[in-house]
Amino acid sequence: MSTNYVQKVKKGINKVIYDKLYINCSTFRKMHYEEVPDGYDYAYNSNHSYHQQHPQSDDCRGSPCSDAVMIKVDVPVPVRDEQRYPKEICKTLLALFIMTCNFILATVSLSIVHDRVPDRDSYGPLPDVVLDNIMPVEWALDVSEILIMVVVNSCVLLITFHKHRFIVMRRVFLIMSILYFMRSITMYVTVLPVSSVTYYCSPRANVTPTPQVIVKRAFQLISGFGLSINGKHTYCGDYIYSGHTVTLVMGYLIIAEYSPKRFWIIHWIAWCVSSTGVTMVLLAHGHYTIDVLIAYYVTTRLFWTYHTLANNSLLLKQNGHNYIGREWWFFIFRYFERNVRGPVPLQYNFPFPIPWTKKAPKLASRES
Questions:
Q1: CA quadruple 121, 127, 130, 134: dihedral sign
Q2: Whole-angstrom distance, CA of residue 177 vs CA of residue 184
Q3: Looking at the annotation, which residues are catalytic?
Q4: H/E segment holding residue 2
Q5: How far apart are CA 34 and CA 124, in angstroms?
Q6: Which of 66 and 174 is assigned the larger pLDDT?
Q7: Which of 32, 143, 176, 247 is deepest in the core (most CB within 10 A)?
Q8: Phi and psi at residue 226, to the nearest 5°
């Protein structure tokens, strides 16, 4: 009577643990290692299909000898968040740089457009179904910009405490970069008359503005963050499409996407704040209705398209059946998102270590 002790451990990404096998048999001619079939009866039964295909040897008849059985247990290896959701701080800084360049480009475009705005004495506001039926309210634009600051600061706070803050920041920077770039083009190619009869516009230059004048105007706009409430935005012509609407809608989308779904009250508050801000822009005659509609459409479609691509890794491939891959910004998206696989989980932590807390010592395990 001999006893063979078999134990095999396979180390790697997928661990396979083999159970201990004890084989008791006086003599045997051949040993087979087979996986246990479904419905296997551990009590020997010659009528079972498994034993009909694998009959016992004659030497084991009437003895405690049994088929050698290999039991395989798959133990999945946990995937680390750091590998699936890398920070890639350099890419985030690059996205910030791209957004800054496009913001400057938008201010330069407005600096040039200001001198192309039709004269108010000759051209009045265009017919608008909304603006024609409401009287302009001067303080409404200040209210809209105060709400913009509230929404922006709320987004900054949310992103700061998000665990994958660098990925979220990178996405926000890239989306805003595309929006600024397209806005700098649309406001330049078609210049509309001033929509408000009460809004102050700086005097236009009698000649073509020099590069020094354009840089001075752009610096003034940047110093006021593009808001009229700071007294720096005194240039007109930035109508198609509304930058106020872009910021308000973008703020709501960020809060709704990257905050827990159970915080639906906060989502509704953000929606109400953004809607009120857009309404105040129209009430102040700061933009035409078409500006607001185009801004809403472009912002929401770009945000949803970008996140659809980011949340489905199969769409990272540019082939004949992926028509979204024909977007002109797709190659930029693929570079910044190729290492992020799937949706970003809604996890939060402090962006800096807390000095009065200490991590518990890590206990050694058998696997380490």
A1: positive
A2: 11
A3: 244, 287, 291
A4: strand 2-6
A5: 88
A6: 174
A7: 247
A8: 75, 15
